[in-house]
What does this fold into?
Amino acid sequence: MVRTTVVRWTAWTAGVLILGLLAAWIWWRESDTAARWRFEEAMETYCGGVLAYEKSSLFEGLGPYAELRTDSALGPDARFCMLGEAMTEVTVALLRADTYPDQDLERILPPFNGSLLPVPLTGGWRGAADGDSVRVLLSCRGNEDLVSVTVGSYFSEERLEQDTGWLDSDLYWGRFATATAVKAAARWGCEAEGGKALRALPAHSGPESIAGADGTCAGLPFARDQRLDTVEETVAGASSLYERCEVGASHYFDATYSFSARFGPYALPKPGHDSLSTRAEAGVAGGAMWASARCPGDAERALFSGLVPSEAATVWLPGEKGEETFGLPAFREFAERSAKRHGCTDLRLPAGG
It folds into this structure.
């Protein structure tokens, strides 16, 4: 009788334990709290532990069901990771002033290829957004080291339906990028000053009349060429990483005058991509022009580039005749205004104009 009771008790206890373990397992697999615990545990090491998944004053946090995909090192203190079903790409790196020209900059600082011209970030951040990526640079106090964060490839079908402005995803990933930059800086011992939560981006406008130029095309000597009628420009800002101005003569030729400015590590030529601008600080070669300047906080000289369309010297309406007179003077003005806006000195410009 006693033995029977013990057996029954043991079986009952084992059954209770099994049911308890099953319930615990189901809770662990299905509850939001357990999902959050698992996610937080994974994020401690994923992508070097530098991604800002937590809720903070800068970012609302990543959801616990965000898929963690690729995680690879691009060198010392540099990671490339992919998140979610859209496989959003995240690149985080500490760029040391004395060594980063030798790093894999083509992957750490991918080119601007978004559907919109880049605009500077607001809220006191140094960075840019172009409709397919958000970039942030934080300067380390006391040296010229930088923390770089690039979030890209979050392009969606929504962008195809609304390709003339910013989406909620631009701001969401912008806040993630800024928060990640702050977290990565702390992790890597970089004392840096961040900004406020990113709540808006500068308005984007498409091509417009030269009379409306009020950004990076403002102040150019349009009166030198009566054929010129349109501009497309980026917002002028002292914190921008990339600036661009396109000037067109739509009734005469399709190609445009193109002027650009790149700052910080974005001014470096990509490895294996030799150009005339790597051999001198300023110059002209055919329709190409370049200039450079020393800007505060940057180890590299800013690079200003210009391109004159070949048609500008040959295409005129019947009965008209002239020569190309806008390109070089406009490029010099563009570079001077941009350098002044960024507090740059030692501006080297091509002669003439």
